[in-house]
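User: Hey, my collaborator sent me this sequence without any context and asked if I could get a structure. I don't really work with proteins. Can you help?
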Amino acid sequence: MKNLLLTLLLGLASHSAMADWTRLLEGKSSVTYIDSTATIKESNLSRVLSMTDFVNVQDAAGEKFMSIKAVTEYDCQEKRYRTVNLTWYSSNMGKGNAVLSNNKPDEWQAINPTTGREAIWELVCD
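Assistant: No problem. I've predicted the 3D structure and written it out in structure-token form, which is a compact way to encode the shape of the chain:
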């Protein structure tokens, strides 16, 4: 499983130019996309690459950014998720410099009904 995750993470940089971003959710301040070509299914887990693109400049830890790419695991059997990698980018659509990164997996969280997470779970676990 670690090898599969490492392969996905290493492929993020080269994959960005070839990504097949599909618009999934749109709000007033951001748009969330998923890359269906980067979805990996293994047993009851699905790993997906998503990107959130912001309308206005965001700030975290003193760094300015316009987009975030995330690798998230979805447990299709238990209906839960966890983010395993986040990278913040200075420009829209995951372009520009990577200004922050977090490679520490989050704790598993339940997926609440009628949320964006549930929409992604339904898509990658179907």
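In plain terms: Residues 62 and 99 are 10 Å apart (CA to CA). You can pass these tokens on to your collaborator as they are.
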